[in-house]
Specification:
The longest helix has 27 residues. The protein folds into 2 domains: about 300 residues, Beta Barrel (Porin), CATH 2.40.160.10; about 60 residues, no CATH class. The chain has 5 helices and 25 strands. The strands form 5 sheets. The protein has a 16-stranded antiparallel beta barrel with strand order 1-3-4-5-6-7-8-9-10-11-16-17-18-21-24-25. Strands 12-13 form a two-stranded antiparallel sheet. Helix 4 packs antiparallel against helix 5. The protein is mainly beta and about 500 residues long.
Length: about 500
């Protein structure tokens, strides 16, 4: 079991503008142009965030440094009960669309009704629907990054009053026209919140979330459409966004079921909130077509049943959770948005301390199977075998994270955040590129020694210098393996 320690630092300067309905900015606009006669309101704003981080790791290097992690221009327009919003990101050195939607609001006797269409976050997540401008931590938890749905193209219906909030919608599988191959799948997602306590002094809410997604697009291999689902997260940092240590690839994924539960409690000077997320994935594939495609090759099987036995297909389940808390030392009271069922960010001059624990579980391991780092593979019953590969285990990694932070807001537009994060990874990361290179060198050495043996058998003589040189290379690489690869261990579920 290996451990990571990280210390990220964020210097966030945001010039943010919107009205209360906007998805990604919750402060007052920088520029507001209004025409009261026409009941027309137009806003424009910007946001800039820069991260700096230093990482300490006990065995694996992670890139320290600085990065521009968010740079956006946003605009909105409202006319009577209609609202349009769009924001655009330039932080990666290229243009990308973040949110763009049209919304219609209708006041009813029992609450507010909203109808929304466009490209925006799927509602089935409290964390992912909280704007980065409203976060009380430098980044969202790894659990939220790994399990929460992101932006999708869809239609939603939203209802809320003082005690209830409901947001549900239908969405397309791929954003815009980004469709590699196949018929585009669909998803349904929703988030429902009950607020038994909700007044100026205190708010307490409990909620549930659900999402179903059908994966229908992918890439064509051997005349078969291959779908895939990728899950993963960085180590709760934006400076080094690699997911090499916490990720799972699920080929042939077909149906995804997400279930979540949440709570939030806030007073003027204190808040705590958390989520539990569960993900279940079922798989489908055209076994007959794949079996026929392998006929006559080295991977061919005598029958379809034998091929299926050697290439099993199973379902997978994963889960994660986080809990956060914050205490404001001075500043304006914490604010809660009834229309989004979310905690708002700091507003005005304020100082707070925060803490978070999160767990991300991307291991789904079959009882008795063991992971061999040198081969980067799981083996049933701990027995090494080159063929057939019958493992159903998914070793995406489990991670426990603990964060302590302090945030200072100069005003409603500028904020500095400092935090210390400790990450504990189980199991150890997958085989590194360095180790893969070692294995490659060992195979070359093996081929060389085999050639020496063949020549020796035919001629009765051995090239002593060549033999000693390969033995020396072999010894060096064995030592490198001992330094980088652990013994096979039973991994934590």
């Amino acid at each position: 079991m290996k451990k990571y320690i990280l210390m990220p630092v964020l210097a966030a300067l945001s010039l943010s503008g919107s009205v209360a309905q906007a998805q990604d900015f919750d402060n007052k606009p920088v520029v507001n142009v209004s025409n009261s006669k026409e009941n027309l309101n137009f806003t424009i704003g910007a946001r800039f965030m820069m991260d700096g981080a230093y990482y300490h790791s006990d065995f694996t290097p992670v890139k320290s440094g600085a990065a521009i992690t968010d740079a956006r221009i946003r605009t909105s327009m409202s006319y009577e009960d209609w609202y349009f919003y769009a924001d655009f990101d330039f932080s990666k050195g290229k243009f990308s669309q973040k949110n763009i939607f049209l919304q219609y609001s209708l006041e009813g006797a029992k609450g507010t009704h909203r109808f929304k269409a466009g490209y925006y976050n799927n509602p089935a997540s409290m964390a992912n629907n909280t704007s980065r401008g409203s976060l009380h931590f430098i980044s969202r938890s790894a659990a939220a990054n790994a399990f929460s749905p992101s932006r999708e193209l869809g239609l939603s219906y939203i209802f809320y009053n003082n005690h209830f909030f409901a947001n549900q919608g239908v969405f397309a599988e791929n954003k815009y026209n980004d469709q590699p191959s196949g018929y585009q799948g669909m998803s349904f997602g929703g988030r429902w919140v009950w607020r038994p306590i909700n007044n100026e002094d205190r708010t307490f809410h409990v909620g549930a979330a659900f999402r179903y997604a059908n994966i229908a697009t992918g890439v064509v291999e051997n005349n078969v459409l291959k779908t895939e689902l990728d899950l993963g997260s960085s180590l709760e940092t934006y400076v080094d966004a690699t997911q090499d240590f916490l990720s799972a690839k699920l080929p042939w994924a077909k149906n995804v079921f997400d279930v979540g539960a949440e709570f939030l409690y806030k007073t003027d000077n204190f808040f705590t909130r958390g989520e539990y997320m569960y993900k279940h994935v079922t798989k489908e594939r055209d076994d007959q077509a794949l079996f026929e495609a392998n006929l006559g090759s080295i991977d061919s099987w005598g029958s379809l049943e034998a091929w299926q036995k050697g290439n099993p297909l199973g379902e997978n389940s994963f889960h994660g959770a986080y809990i956060e808390a914050g205490y404001k030392i001075f500043g304006d009271p914490y604010q809660y948005s009834n229309s989004d069922a979310l905690l708002k960010g700091l507003n005005g001059r304020a100082l707070e301390v925060v803490a978070r624990y999160s767990y991300t579980g991307l291991n789904d391991l079959v009882e008795g199977e063991k992971y061999i780092p040198g081969r980067d593979q799981y083996y049933p019953n701990g027995i090494l075998a080159d063929y057939p590969a019958t493992s159903l285990s998914v070793g995406g990694g489990n991670m426990h994270s603990a964060t302590l932070g302090v945030n200072y807001s100069f005003n409603k537009f500028a904020q500095v955040m400092l935090s210390y994060t400790y990450n504990r990874l189980v199991p150890a990361p997958r085989i590194s590129d360095d180790v893969k290179e070692i294995i490659k060198q060992l195979r070359m050495i093996g081929n060389n020694l085999n050639q020496i043996a063949v020549i020796g058998y035919k001629t009765g003589t051995i090239d002593i210098l060549k033999y000693k040189r390969n033995c020396s290379e072999l010894e060096k690489n064995v030592q490198l393996i001992l330094n980088n690869v652990t013994e096979p261990t039973r991994m934590e579920k």
